[in-house]
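Check this.
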Amino acid sequence: MIQAKCWCGNTELVPFSPEYWRCPVCESLVTSRTPAQSATPRVLDDNHDFYGRDYWFSYQEKDLGFPNIMVRSRTDLPERCLYWLRTVLKYKLPPASVLELGSAHGGFVAMLRWAGFEATGLELSPWVVEFARQHFGVPMLLGAIEDQQVEPGSLDMIALMDVLEHLPDPVGTIQHCLNLLKPDGVMIIQTPCYPEGKSYEEMVAEGNRFLELLKADEHLYLFSRQSIREFFHRLGAEHLAFEPAIFAHYDMFLVVSRVPLAAYLPDGIAKALSATPNGRMIQALLDLDDQYRSLQSRYAELEADRAARLENLQRLERLLAEAERDRAARLGVIEAQGAEIARLQAEVHRWLEENKALWQQVGEMEAERNRLQAQLADLRQQFESVEADRAARLGVIEAQGAEIARLQAEVHRWLEENKALWQQVGEMEAERNRLQAQLANLQRRLDESEAQRSRQAALGVAQQEQLQAVMAQLRTLQGLFTAIQRGRVYRVVRRLGGWKWVEQA
């Protein structure tokens, strides 16, 4: 655990940034550095103390980049001071006693007095106190509020503009201020607003302007809305009203009271200001400021409209440029395609010239194809005719084969009945097998081309002759059988043209 301590008393702080701790109890940021001023800030030496004369010149200009106190004594009046005065008038009307802590050049105190308030300023630096007295002629107190002889319960309002974050002991100092207020008195406060729930890394990534207020040497406590409510709750000031801050991107602006707050209407504010000559001047300034704000609002609207129109114009210019690039690209493509088309046309023309003879040959080939198709049709008809004739012949051959089979069966029956002639029948069986082989060969030949048809016909005639020879032999066998039955003796002699039966003497 670390030794740093939050205003709420919590010491268990967690790291937030390189120079700040975060209090998880109240959501405040606490500096990790030892402050340059003492526990109760005082300026004894304007040349060396932190909030002395050098703070308003060298430190503001060189270190922070802000205008020095001389410039701000003029520029703050129409900007910050008039803005703050509007909120003061909303909750308190003159005459009322007001004390501003950290009043700097005294311009806001002067404006409060012109509006009719009994206003006094307070500063730590003798040089700054004298500067405010000379420039604006306002009453000033020197030193810490705890050192002043202000009667408790005597003030209607205390203003702390960019002061709370600088206090080493905010609880003690603000408790003392509350004791100085009347029962219905208010405090008006402007202070940095820590956006609770966001980490340092997230704010760095998004460029959050609150990071500009992480000044560990002077901003000792940075409150969030949650922690500022808790802060005044613990001090017995329960009633808070948050008003729009002039620098809303990193500040908060609030009014605090121990009793319910009541806001005055514009008519009541105008009536209170019109009671004094200076008040009427302040009213005129407020009216001018209203006109200025209206002009600012109108200017912002016009600027937003101009920006929108400019954005639209830029978008149209981008679209036009893209369209022009696309048109140029398409034109380039078209030109390239045109050149390619011209090249292809020339190539086609060359091909046509080169292939005129081919076209003539194609015509001739087409005529030849037609002629061949006609011949093919004729050949198909002839083939169909030959096929029909072949089928018919095959039918005849099959019929003849059937008749031969029948005759073979008859011969076999005769051989069985006449075992004595078995040898002669065996030889005839061999002859029959040869004839069957010839028939099979004839069948195969019939399946061949048209060129074999004539041969198949010749074979058919030969088979017919063989069949007739077989029939003659069968008749001879039949005569032989008859002669054998009559008691005659024959011998078989092979002669040219077949078997012959010769009667033996």
Q: What stands out?
A: Residues 243 and 308 are 30 Å apart (CA to CA).
